[in-house]
User: Which sequence fits this backbone?
DNA sequence: ATCGGTGGCTAAACCGGTTTACGAACGGTA
DNA sequence: TACCGTTCGTAAACCGGTTTAGCCACCGAT
């Protein structure tokens, strides 16, 4: 009864239960391997009686087709990967990412695809990809100038890149970072703010034009200032990791260095929450003495005190769209030669962390400039 | 140069680039498939020159061993699964889960294992497991009475269960839910609270003794009350999803139904944050008019206003321990027959969401009882 | 009685690697 | 020169399924 005959006493105390293979079922049922396979996958090719009998035997023996073997002959894994250049620990700690993954997962799950997380293996994304059994990947957080980017492109795996321009022949999803940032800055300018601090997300790439999320958002802030006949000095831009702790410490450091902005524009909600915490610690009242604007509109913004004014981007929907795009690309591998790019909208959500600067401060600032 | 000869013109406009197989490399290099395999995996079995030449050819052709094929012959996938009975959307939305996954991921990543998320397929966990190419699974959130539990056990996949008793022959990780809950309740009782509201996590299983997280925590609350010569009426226990929204609405509903607890004990921090939000909306001051205790001690508790008093459990470490246990079980499949169970500690973190009830209220309550 | 068609099943090829068993060439020793 | 032990490489089996090509028996039609 238990396991494969002839192997039972191989090792005493060892798990006697070997995995039941298709050949075992075939032998037990007195048919060929093909018949067993047909019984499950193409019952029409067998007489009803035989099919039922085979299924019965298989059931009794506890047979389950080996998923890896099935993958190999099927030529596909029915699994997609989420590729991130960061370590997984950092990935899951990031609520933005969790929300994005939520979107991806809801689609893959519905279509019966597995979801595998891919992060650098021994520091190499290319190696990690080589080991990953996926039909395609959604790449997020991948900087345009990532050193292994070429290797990835050459890998030939169907890919949807998120928050970065499409590679030739691949697909991409972007949001209107610049427009959202412009709206945020305009909002503050309209309230009368002139002296602001910008908390950029970690790799604050300014140099090479459009490159990167940070660059696009900064361009948006700048555009609003220029439209108002003002300019945003480079000294007003500070880097901060997109975490609560990162935002708090960057803000505190700027403050202790003597900066006295009337408003802070953050490129992430997490950092904005950190600024909020820092302001509370300093006894600076929000929004009376300090206005704060975030970016992303994560669920947590509605539960900060005060609720955070922020630039909304459809993060979850971005994940869904990425997954759908990828599955679509898998269905018709040829695709057109033109690269498909989807740009989602952003919009400012005015809540209660922003207000007009207090009178004297406003005055002071105007004089200072 | 490009792809497999004889297939180039199969479909015009189709991707001409076929995947390079080991046989292609072998042919190109004028050696056998085995030699190519050796060149990568056991270079010692080849002369240095040959090995180098083969690697060179392979490199030039862009050869990458097919991971699925490798899995099949290796007999292992080097991937582990995180199994959850909930839909993935709900999973990632839960910060508790993200933290747990962070722990699991940090270990698997370090050991070079992939991480696959497994959730019900068409409603069936067993089916999802059958399709999952993993060497073992970490099961979390699995209720002892889950209908498919037997199927999972019978599946024969090495498993570590989290927050549930060990199955015979499997391993388990628990935390001292009851002790933590008892501490929380004692803390409130010591402050003078008598009229409390309990927000249980969704499946509030009370009936069958020890079963489930909810049951164990409730038992802890109860034990503290009994130790004080009091009792916790069933009417004081309400179900709430472990989300901010869930906590808020459950609290508001209880309040509008006339309940006037001086303290709320929540079985999750998310729910506690929701209660906090609800109290703010009602204009009830925390902790002066209402004390709140959470459970889990997620990072967010330090950034609520006021910071949340809560029962700490080492969630991240729980994930790490689960992963390590599983990898250990994979290394020595036989194991002892005794089931290994690891119980981690919990402890109360007193922050600022709890205080003695205001005098009159306290009076009123005492009279009321 | 012969032929053509079809239903039911099987043998063998295949997916793309890894690994085992073995053979040929080579160098050193008796 | 015959013998032996390495070194280097190959053919073939194997992992566990799916799928194609084809065999055989049985049926009705001519």
Assistant:
């Amino acid at each position: 009864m238990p396991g494969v005959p002839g192997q039972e006493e191989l090792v005493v105390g060892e798990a006697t239960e070997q995995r039941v293979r298709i050949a075992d079922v075939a032998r037990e049922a007195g048919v060929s391997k093909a018949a067993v396979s047909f019984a499950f996958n193409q019952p029409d090719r067998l007489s009803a009686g035989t099919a039922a009998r085979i299924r019965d035997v298989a059931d009794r023996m506890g047979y389950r087709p080996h998923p890896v073997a099935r993958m190999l002959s099927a030529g596909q894994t029915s699994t997609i990967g989420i590729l991130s250049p960061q370590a997984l620990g950092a990935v899951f700690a990031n609520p933005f990412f969790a929300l994005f993954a939520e979107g991806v997962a809801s689609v893959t799950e519905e279509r019966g695809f597995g979801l595998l997380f891919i992060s650098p293996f021994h520091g190499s994304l290319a190696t990690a990809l080589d080991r990953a059994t996926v039909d395609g990947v959604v790449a997020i957080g991948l900087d345009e100038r990532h050193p292994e980017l070429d290797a990835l492109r050459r890998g030939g795996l169907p890919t949807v890149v998120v928050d970065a321009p499409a590679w030739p022949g691949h697909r991409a999803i972007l949001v209107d970072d610049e427009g959202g940032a412009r709206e945020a800055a305009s909002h503050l300018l309209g309230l009368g703010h002139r002296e602001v601090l910008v908390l950029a997300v970690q790799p604050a790439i300014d140099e090479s034009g459009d490159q990167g999320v940070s660059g696009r958002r900064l361009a948006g802030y700048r555009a609003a200032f220029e439209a108002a006949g003002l300019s945003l000095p480079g000294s007003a831009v500070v880097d901060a990791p997109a975490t609560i702790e990162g935002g708090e410490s960057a803000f505190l450091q700027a403050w202790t260095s003597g900066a006295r902005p009337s408003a802070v524009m953050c490129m992430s909600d997490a950092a904005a929450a950190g600024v909020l915490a820092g302001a509370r610690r300093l006894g600076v009242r929000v929004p009376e003495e300090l206005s704060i604007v975030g970016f992303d509109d994560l669920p947590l913004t509605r539960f900060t005190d005060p609720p955070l004014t922020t630039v909304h981007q459809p993060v979850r929907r971005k994940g869904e769209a990425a997954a759908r795009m990828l599955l679509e690309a898998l269905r018709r591998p040829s695709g057109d030669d033109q690269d498909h790019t989807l740009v989602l909208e952003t919009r400012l959500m005015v809540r209660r962390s922003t207000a007009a600067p207090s009178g004297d401060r406003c005055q002071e600032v105007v004089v200072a400039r």
Observations:
- The radius of gyration of chain B is 28 Å.
